[in-house]
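To assess whether the prediction recovers the assembly geometry, we first specified each molecular entity separately, as shown.
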Amino acid sequence: MSGPETERPAGTPQVGEPGTVAMTIGEGVAQATYRPDLKAKNPKLRLSGVCVTYIGRDGHDTEAVRDVSFEIEDRPGVGEIVVFLGPSGCGKSTILKAVAGLLPPTKGTVHVGGELVKGVGRDRGMVFQAYTSFGWLTVRENVEYGLRLRGVAPKERSERADKYLSAVGLADFANRYPKDLSGGMKQRVALARTLINQPRLVLMDEPFGALDPQTRWGMQGLLLDIARAEDNTTIFITHDVSEAVYLADTVYVLSARPARILHRVNVPAFANREISLKSSAEFRAVERQLLDLLYAPS
Amino acid sequence: MAPETFGLRTNLSQGTSFALGLVSPIVLFGTWCGLTYGGFAPPDFLPSPTEVLRGILQLFIEHDLWGAILISSRRIGIAFLLASAIALPLGVLMGSFQAVNRLFEPVVSPLRYMPISAFIPLLILWFGIYEKQKIAFLFLGVFVYLLPVVVTAIRAVPDELVQTALTLGASKFQVIRTVLVPAALPEICDSFRVMNAISWTYVILAEAVNPEHGLGYMVELARTHQKASWSFAGLFVIGGIGLITDSAIRLFWNVAFRWKEKTT
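The predicted structure of the complete assembly is given in tokenized form:
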């Protein structure tokens, strides 16, 4: 994959800046410090006062998201990764589904590139924790799926699939069926299948949650490489603090259900993202900070 | 250490598995031979294997058993096609849209609990005693079984597959055509094996009304002639057909759904 090496945004936290938290180690924060501050001129994504209550399988109303507002500024060529960190089952996925247009907000609005989101669209691709490879299609056919839906000619389809298959390291498995793939490879298929549509936003719902630690690290590295090369913004949901620190430019810390944004933390731009980073003091400090925020009594 | 033969949920070697599978047929066949050739049972009560074989040949040569098989197969085939033509699209819609499901479910689901044979008098009233009645009966038997299978299979497709397709730009009907149906198809086809078995049972019931042709007629012939050997012949032939068609469906499944793990 080609693309200019871009500088990641420097996110040195500053005390007193709206919506940020000072990186003071070991200091528990009891109350929400996040104050929505929607004033970007040209936001790629803006959620304003989004509440989601949906009808569950049992027919009862479930309040999943309460008054969530935030925005992601459009910074072309950055390949920003925004992480939503929160306890399991807190409603993080629901925020993502509201952005995807899979669940309409009960209150509030979602705007993508200035346009009101009214339903699903392929400018917002989604990758789930559950393996979603279409088992009856080969790896190549899976990756080409979105292009085939809109009638792209076979030759162009296959050329573009080749590009993304090699980007995720699956070129040799193009003609296999998903049943022959490992969990990590299935998630690579899902990633390639989403990226080939060139979405403006890639929405990832704990995509590496079911993978073993080693595969997980590999996939995190792959995601960072791809985010740098592609000009899309990734919203990544996880409950794994270390994963959040490793991947994120910005972390939003969420409350238990119904999900609200409690804190926003700008992760400093690390000099490199080698695996060894994870055991460095610098990395550990940010991890510690997020843990304190996540488990602070509130 | 060799695996324990009666270990809880342990797998068996091919040889052991094959040998164990031979035990019950050999015991059954041996007992049968002993009782009949040993003179413990009179031939009009329990015919010997030789008698049954002779009965099969008699039915084939003198009573056109082959024609009867074709007639019964044809009836099953037509009923199968009709039932699929309605149950497949209806089931796909009911499985895909909760609203459609609620529209039809209150009428369709009690059908499953009704004894199908109790419909015979009604079907005679509505369709007469000839071909139409027999096909209608088989249709009903297959339909009430197939419809809930299709609905369940479609509903069992994980939400994430549907949501993935939607975010990749698929319309509702593209999701149904390119995700829900292909994902549910193996299970639906697998249910054809059970329906095949049901059909060969019901066909005898259907053909017991005004028996003129078909396998039901052969069974009826055995009854009127009081020939136990013909009854056995009929059972063996129908059982054989069941086994052959079942293997055919399984073979088709394994070829068509190579992408899935193999079924047993």
